[in-house]
């Protein structure tokens, strides 16, 4: 039982972890901030506004030691949500454990062999959903392979990869796509380990036994339960037939769950509580396909960062189910059910067909590089949005049953979520500069750090397993940004396909419907201006959750706009330069990481300095109303949050913003 947690600083997160463990948590699930996840130190230009926002910043061994102070790592089970820099964070974790062992007067090697936990380490889904990749797919798969082969021998209780279908569902995946793409990722990883020559054939079953999965559970809990039974069936077949694993225990499908966040609503957020409970039932009702670990979001996640009390509420849900209900006392409740068996068979057949399609393209890496999987997810998400907007998919409190009594939980929105101190980034930047300065002021320590980075560079070039060099970097006080910079020099940078150009979107519409009406508004405004309306959709900073931006871009294209969308991880300066170069009529900024108050004003300032201050800016994201008011006061034309789910309405609003900025008379807005 865990809650996904971490923010501000190592010391603040350590205090939170110790409080949560005292409340009955049985493991830790560490959230790292975006600079840490993508391999940047807090003082890097791309880290602006992102330090400590969605997780804890870990820049070096000193931070890792502080994060787990007074928490004996030998006794802990720690899940670390980290992918591109997974090898580096595990190296820091191991060295922190060695230091704890030495302080206790015990054998560090024994502590290391006792370490239990998980590094997420699934880079494929980063190119498809979360966007926290750092290197191209090929070198990234090499890092995964090196980490797996190291841990199987040296940290045998560690789960070196946690293949994540969770984020695929968040990006719009259907149950069939979620199963198929997760299994295709597992095939790519296991094939790479087998073909690397680092693991003898007879040891491959021990690798398979350490593979775990991290799945999503949506509110359609019967379908989700059947999905998990399909996962179990497919994994057993795949590991037996493709990899020759004869031990049933080694073929066991081991998975943890974070229930669905995509379906949580800002409107009537109290409804999220029952959604979370239903989603938890989907992965616990069936004993033969039951989750090993569950972590639940908080009811107010669509509003902002949950407070400790909100996290406690989610933990108590699990404890009530486990200790008060009788759910865990019986054998599987669905064995022999013709309804369940039919649904499972349907999901298995669909997943096998999609897996065969991916394999025919050359496997998961090739399907990422071609943009196939990304485009498929963007299209599925567009269809999901269409069904909600059309009322075909009911979301209580959002598109039906919208009347509500005043909500005491959100009466004071400024206290209904947790905020990160604005000085966190400054303190972290000063601290990492001081760390490097103190280290380099000592000739011996400076020389050791330089030698460690040179060894990392040489091993990256030669093909040597990189774990040993990474451990030496950790011991030599190298920083996260320095470690990643060396590998970026060797492996190069990478920008994943956005999936927007290849996505189908909503496409056709009926005369007189909302999309058709918006198209008329766009066309008429373009005629009055004498040019086609152009908008730029930009994602500044390190926030890689691009689903919203992609859906806006696809719908804007369907509505008749010319759309400029360059993907994730842009500086405000790059967004301004693109807006000026493309001579756009509107700039739309999407931020879900909480960095809107730092990055949006930089875009506004940059446009003014570039002589484009008359180009209106709209912003979308998880933005508290007090922040939205401040953004509007700073010059933002409109702010959209998760409650604004009608994309056609948003398109109509954007036309109105463009007309106002260009001095044109208002037109009738699109029908709701």
Automatic annotation (TrEMBL):
The UniProt record lists the keyword Metal-binding: yes
NCBIfam families xrefs: acid_CoA_mut_C (TIGR00640), acid_CoA_mut_N (TIGR00641)
Taxonomic lineage: Bacteria, Bacillati, Actinomycetota, Actinomycetes, Micrococcales
The protein, known as: Protein meaA
PROSITE patterns named in the record: B12_BINDING
Superkingdom, taxonomy of origin: Bacteria
Record domain B12-binding: where: 532-661
InterPro entries, alphabetized: Acid_CoA_mut_C, Cbl-dep_enz_cat, Cobalamin-bd, Cobalamin-bd_sf, MeMalonylCoA_mutase_a/b_cat, MMCoA_mutase_a_cat
Subunit-structure text: Heterodimer of an alpha and a beta chain.
The entry's keywords: Cobalamin, Cobalt, Isomerase, Metal-binding
Family stated for the protein in its record: Belongs to the methylmalonyl-CoA mutase family.
Cofactor(s) the record lists: adenosylcob(III)alamin
Transmembrane parts of this sequence: none
